[in-house]
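I hope you will forgive my troubling you with a question about protein structure. I am sending you one protein, given as its amino acid sequence and as whole-number tokens for its backbone shapes. Thank you for your consideration; the sequence and its tokens are set out here:
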Amino acid sequence: MNEKKAFAFTLIELLIVVAIIGILAAIAVSNFINAQVRAKVARGKADMRSLALAVETYRMDRNKYHPDLADFMQNNAALVKSSGALCLFYPLTTPIAYMSSSPITPFGPWQSQGIAGVDFRGYDYENHVIEEFSRQGFFETHYDYALITAGPTTKFVSLDVTGRSIVGTVYNSSNGVVSSGNIVRYGPGGDKY
């Protein structure tokens, strides 16, 4: 009598294999999501580097920086309501093309506190004085301009205190890839370039 033994996996062995595959998949998915966030942050910084070059070139030609959202709204309210923050850089694209088009922020639309119901898909631009909050109270830091976009949480942090703009919390990836805060690039004229 030649008896053949059938080899098969037990239910416990199959559950252990499925659990191991699930753990490996969870690790891979979180690393993939973190890589996407890091790529979006890098794209945002590269876009702001290009915008800064265009802003500085505009200043060299005209001897002044182009208007920010508050100044631009005074003469172009209909354009702002129809195209959002993309129109902020309209002076950089027409009539002289300092850049070919206004870049769209990689973190999706954000809303301005001053204009209800308009989703801005571009970068924010503010010139002159930016106030920041410190533990000692408010202090002024002078910059010629700041380019701002929402960070990975897609919540644009911008406050209005005493009629001046505040950049808010600045994004820092050391607090976790998806930490709160804005991605900001300061222009010359300040101590945090």
User: Anything to note?
Assistant: The longest strand covers residues 137-150. Residues 11-186 form one domain. The helical segments are 11-62, 69-75, 77-83, 90-93. The CA atoms of residues 30 and 36 lie 10 Å apart.
